[in-house]
Automatic annotation (TrEMBL):
Gene Ontology annotations for the cellular component aspect, listed alphabetically: cytosol
Organism annotation: Anopheles stephensi (Indo-Pakistan malaria mosquito)
Family under the similarity heading: Belongs to the TIP41 family.
Taxonomic superkingdom: Eukaryota
Protein name per Swiss-Prot or TrEMBL: TIP41-like protein
GO biological process, one term: TOR signaling
PANTHER family for this protein: GAF/PUTATIVE CYTOSKELETAL PROTEIN, TIP41-LIKE PROTEIN
Length: 275
């Protein structure tokens, strides 16, 4: 029983799935990626026994990884037809720019120099996007056909009170930018009797400089053969947000909708039935 005496304690689980009509919605989760090679830096790309850290380093070629990469955290939505939508940190980090960053802040050099890996490289300040900004919008297979659409996700419909059949929130990666802000990628899924809703959110706060979010929403309504997808990029410099209480800056759920929209893309992901 829980401390309130109202029911059994829900113990943490590392995987769970839920069947919703022809859809299977499931996740796996585990600890963060180790920060050192367990094979003494002898790993070879593509060979059996290559450690998980080196798999990431070989795939990404970034000078540094975020402080916390939850490499086994994956959300997967599969349809009986074979259509699949997945969210994982490796594909997200592949979209981080491995080039000089336009954003200039006083802490950037300090952040790079603070990394323990820097002491073992000859190019300690190799330029790259140290904010880990990504426009990752999920990974789909060829059983989904993506096309532009004028349809919009009905957020008012999603705000209606409805029974929650299944819910989970996964962090894919996180970095505190050497105590100068936060870079965070997370994904939430909610299943209701009418369908399911997914929010993939990249949130960046560089203290006293910038706030940015890349939100990708997915909405499936029961009976449809498609999923609506909406990508929204929002961004503002802190000086543009003086009318907003600074206390709100620490919570993405409170601040994101107050940021101006820079770009928006709407798509329809139609299920391609096998012949």
């Amino acid at each position: 029983m829980g401390e309130d005496g109202l029911g059994p304690v829900r113990l943490p689980v590392d995987r769970e799935s839920y069947q919703f009509d022809d859809w299977t919605i499931g996740y796996t989760k585990s600890h963060i990626l180790k920060s050192v090679c367990i094979n003494g830096e002898t790993c070879v790309a593509g060979e059996p026994g290559c450690c998980e850290l080196c798999v990431y380093n070989f795939a990404l070629a970034l000078p540094h990884l975020p402080d916390m990469v939850f490499h086994k955290n994956v959300l997967r939505i599969s349809h009986a037809s074979g259509a699949q939508l997945e969210f994982n940190p490796l594909d997200a980090l592949k979209l981080v720019r491995n080039e000089k960053l336009d954003l200039k802040v006083a802490c950037s050099d300090e952040w790079r120099e603070s990394r323990p890996e820097a002491a073992h490289t000859s190019d300690k300040v190799k330029p790259f996007d140290w904010t880990f900004t990504t426009e990752y919008a999920g990974t789909t297979n060829d059983r989904f056909r993506a096309e532009p659409t004028e349809q919009r996700i009905d957020m008012f419909k999603l705000m209606r009170k409805e029974e929650i059949l299944f819910y989970h929130n996964l962090t894919l990666f996180e970095d505190e930018l050497h105590d100068h802000g936060i870079s965070l990628l997370s994904v939430k899924v909610r299943v209701m009797p009418s369908g399911f809703y997914i929010l993939l959110r990249f949130f960046l706060r560089v203290d006293n400089v910038l706030l940015r979010s890349n939100d990708t929403r997915f909405h499936y309504e029961k009976g449809n053969d498609y999923v609506l997808k909406e990508f929204t990029h929002r961004e503002a410099k802190v000086e543009q947000l003086k009318h907003i209480p600074p206390a709100l800056f620490t919570n993405p759920d409170h601040i994101v909708d107050k940021l101006p929209v820079v770009r928006k893309v709407n798509e329809k992901l139609t299920i391609v039935k096998p012949e």
